[in-house]
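Supplementary Methods. Inverse-folding protocol.

Structures were first reduced to a discrete structure-token string of length 248. This string, shown here, constituted the complete conditioning input.
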């Protein structure tokens, strides 16, 4: 079956040269973007109920840009003046670069991992005498606390923001040839919005093993999977599938 329409369960890319726009133009398909989940901040009052006093920590572990935004939002709400001596441990260069939105980069102690949390852990271990705070979501991957526990450091997790299901009721009667998912939360959102969803001829594209498992656990069929050695990105996987499906 040919592919004409695709729904990506994420916000529309802000960069003009996104590979999704190139895919849309070259393959002559219509691609819509719609976040199936969104993030909502936890109030300073709720942070206090978690028995978190920002003054007690000398280092912050930041795993995402959301973590950066919500740490500084809570700090502002609590009227906590972030000290210049605070150490920042960023999971990736992208997170560290985003930190510049809030601090003067060259004047802060910032330690950057390569990409994964496991790659950041040796840097954290070097400073095991620090008191670490991990501002995070309520959907934290279990390997993160497990890794920190293994390091034997003094740390505490704080839920600073939550992943919430978006209202998709306006899509009830809209059909797409392909639905694209990047997290188990996206699959949960699909079924919370449409409990009677039947896949039928809809193709499902999935990124990552945990998302693949979530799709299969719901009894759905995975038609397009990434990353693979041949198609390391979702757009490459979609391109390959569309070229085969749309052959005349």
């Amino acid at each position: 079956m040919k592919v004409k329409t695709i729904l990506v369960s994420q916000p529309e890319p802000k960069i003009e040269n996104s590979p999704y726009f190139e895919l849309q133009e070259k393959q002559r398909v219509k691609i819509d973007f719609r976040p199936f989940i969104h993030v909502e901040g936890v109030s300073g009052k709720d942070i206090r109920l978690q028995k978190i006093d920002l003054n007690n920590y000398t280092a912050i572990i930041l795993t995402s840009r959301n973590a950066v935004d919500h740490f500084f939002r809570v700090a502002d709400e609590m009227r906590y003046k972030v000290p210049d001596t605070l150490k920042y441990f960023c999971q990736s260069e992208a997170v560290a670069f985003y930190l510049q939105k809030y601090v003067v980069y060259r004047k802060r102690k910032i330690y950057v991992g390569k990409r994964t949390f496991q790659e950041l852990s040796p840097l954290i271990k070097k400073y095991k005498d620090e008191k670490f705070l991990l501002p995070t979501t309520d959907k934290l991957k279990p390997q993160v606390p497990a890794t920190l526990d293994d390091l034997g450091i003094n740390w505490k997790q704080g839920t600073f923001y939550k992943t919430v299901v978006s209202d998709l009721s306006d899509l009830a009667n809209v059909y797409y040839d392909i639905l694209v998912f990047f997290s188990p939360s996206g699959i949960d959102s699909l079924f919370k919005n449409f409990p009677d969803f039947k896949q039928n001829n809809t193709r499902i594209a999935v990124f990552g093993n945990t998302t693949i498992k979530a799709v299969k656990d719901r009894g759905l069929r995975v038609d397009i999977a990434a990353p693979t050695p041949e198609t390391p990105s979702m757009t490459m996987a979609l391109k390959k599938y569309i070229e085969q499906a749309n052959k005349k």
